[in-house]
Amino acid sequence: MTSTPTPAEAMVRIRMAMQQNNLAQARAIAEQARKAHPGDAALADAAGDLALKSGDGATAIAHFAAACELAPAMLDYAINHAIALQRLNRHGEVIDALRKLEKQGRTVPRYGSVRALSHRALGEAAEAAHWYDVVLGLEPRHPRALHGRARVALERGERDAVARFDAALAVNPGDADLWLGKAQALDVAGDTRGARLIAQQLCDQAPGFIAALEFFSGLKLAAGEVDFTSPFRAAAAKAPQDPNIPSAHAEVFAGLDYAEQAAQVATEARARFPHEPHFALLEAVHAGSAGDWERADAIFAGLQLDTPMRALHEARHRIRAGQIERAEALLDRALANDPWDINAWALRGMAWRVAGDARAEWLHEQAGLVQLRPLVGRDGLVDDAVAELRVLHAGSAMPLGQSLRGGTQTRGILFHRTEALLAELHEAIRATLEAYRGDLPALDESHPLLRHRETPWRLEGSWSVRLTGGGTGAGDYHTAHIHPQGIVSSAAYLVVPPAAEGPEQFGWLEIGRPPPDLGLDLPPVRSIQPRTGHLALFPSTLYHGTTPFGAGGGPDSERMTVAFDVVTKAR
How much is the pLDDT for 404? Predict the structure, then answer.
């Protein structure tokens, strides 16, 4: 009869299995030992570590939580638990777990580094900066803290961002992401030449580094180069076996309405990667957007791909063809995978409107869902914010992959910046948002927005757009789009051109007008005349864009807004 090993014996057996690179055996020993000795905290921690190494995050969390409960004062167990929670993006729980040991953790670099990462993931940039600084006070050459602190400095618009990336690179000079961060910081600081040199080197040396390819293409777009996606072509020539390069290349084209070019990239990639059905899907999506309906239809008919993403994109194709019943069936499949997918709900709203379904009114036309509200703030706040933002726009450009057509958009997350005036504007917007919430229809658990009526909200993502009427031949505008990461979308009007007050409705916000590629002759659910010092707020499931204005440019054609997405705090 084999006796049950003691906890110490089990730990020895686990170490021996790991020395033999037998993770499965080590984990089996740990699981058996845990059952025999459920009150041993060290075994629980070891079992959690092995589960995490095996990619089983949920089991790891359970074991680490047990270790913390058995030994609540053991900091290492709490940190291990937090890391497992981070793997599943449960960052709010990370902060809750680590706060209990904050006094002890302040002296441990690993604690501060883990905590800073979750604060940053939650959009709490100031807290992230604080904890990275705590780590660097303890260990000035801590690689992760140097990197994280440099990233936060870039996101917050801190003046020493370039120096912080240099400090991080002095410790870890081979980190490509750090070099990209330095290039981005140089660009923000106005050193476009330096940014381009680094971007070029990154793309030459690491052709599969998609973020660098996107950044370099963005620099070329900002410089007015026609062939702004040339970094992707060069990368594909150097790494022809990498399917991620043409995939990202097509999306960059599509993000700026170059649907035909996106479809061509997908076609070429489909020939190079015949066993990757993703490229057939991309070709169908972009060919349909470019108006080549028959080509898209033929691809969908033979597409060997049964995923929620395929269902979502084919639903769009079926709406374009007027095949509403087929579109609804496909959207049902997509929503079965993710019941609250914003993209799917937006298309569902379009399908219901085309079909004359009364549910379209329930989804988007109830009184209070779309509101234009005055900004809650002091007199003079708007004028002060405009002056501050004009300085930021002077160093900004038209971004890749956004709805903007002409004009400039501020970089990074606006309300993560350190300027006190922007913090004041942030608080004014939050107060206005709560007033909007108070005038919403009643709680409705089946509605993609109203189900969140009583839950805490926060802002995620924030930016300012400045249009001056000279960006495109027909004037500046936003193409119809949605923000699929939020539940409420917005536009805060800080500067409104006089033309917006005329009968032509120049620069008005059109909420609910279909995007052009759908080919639907539907009017907006509501057209909003911009008003200085007011916020337009509406469900993120509503497509929205602006009418063009100010094709001639000039001092009376400026339009400046601040926009953001609203998410639940628990997301």
Answer: 42
What 3 state SS string does 133-154 have? HHHHHHCCCCHHHHHHHHHHHH
Alpha-helical runs (H) found in 273-323: 277-289, 293-302, 308-320
Q: What pLDDT score does 569 carry?
A: 78
- Whether the pLDDT of residue 434 is over 60: the answer is yes
pLDDT category at 79 given cuts 50, 70, 90 is: very high
Q: What would be the CATH architecture of the domain defined by 371-568?
A: Sandwich (2.60)
Helix or strand holding residue 452 (H, E): none
Kindly indicate the confidence band of residue 558, based on its pLDDT and cuts at 50, 70 and 90: confident
The pLDDT of residue 503 is: 67
Residues 312 and 341: beta-carbon distance below 8 Å: yes
Domain 152-361: which CATH number of 3.40.50.720, 2.60.40.420, 1.25.40.10, 1.10.150.170: 1.25.40.10
Q: Output the 3-class SS for 145-188.
A: HHHHHHHHHHHCCCCCHHHHHHHHHHHCCCCHHHHHHHHHHHHH
Q: What is the pLDDT of residues 115-172, one digit of tens each?
A: 999 999 988 999 999 999 999 999 999 999 999 999 999 999 899 999 999 999 999 9
Half-sphere exposure of 474 (CA within 13 A, CB side): 9
470-481 tens-digit pLDDT: 544 444 555 788
User: Is pLDDT of 76 > 70?
Assistant: yes
Q: What is the model's pLDDT at position 52? A: 97
pLDDT at 393: 87
In whole angstroms, give the CA distance from residue 324 to residue 344: 14
Where b means 16+ CB within 10 Å and e means fewer, 324-347 reads bebbbebbebbbeeeeebbbbbbb
The alpha-carbon radius of gyration of the chain (Å, integer) is: 26
**Sheet containing 526-528: which strands, arranged edge to edge?**
526-528, 509-511, 544-546
Residue 481 CA to residue 512 CA, distance in Å, equals 10
Centre a 10 Å sphere on the Cβ of residue 228 and count the other Cβ atoms it contains: 20
* Start-to-end CA span in the chain (Å): 52
Closest CA to 215 of 67, 201, 333: 201
Round to whole Å and give the CA distance between 558 and 436.
Answer: 27
Check for a shared fold between 152-361 and 371-568: no
Side-chain-side CA neighbours of residue 95 (13 Å)? 16
- Here the contacts of 314-320 (C-beta below 8 Å, separation 24 or greater) are 314/284, 315/344, 315/347, 315/351, 316/285, 316/288, 316/347, 316/518, 317/284, 317/285, 317/288, 317/293, 319/347, 319/350, 319/351, 319/354, 319/518, 319/520, 320/288, 320/293, 320/517, 320/518, 320/519
> Domain limits of the chain?
7-105, 152-361, 371-568
What pLDDT score does 402 carry?
43
Instruction: Work out the percent of the chain whose per-residue pLDDT is above 90.
Output: 81
CATH superfamily of 7-105: Tetratricopeptide repeat domain (1.25.40.10)
Sequence-distant (6+) residues with CB within 8 A of 136 are: 142, 145, 146, 149
Paired strand residues for 535: 373, 492
pTM attached to this predicted model? 0.87
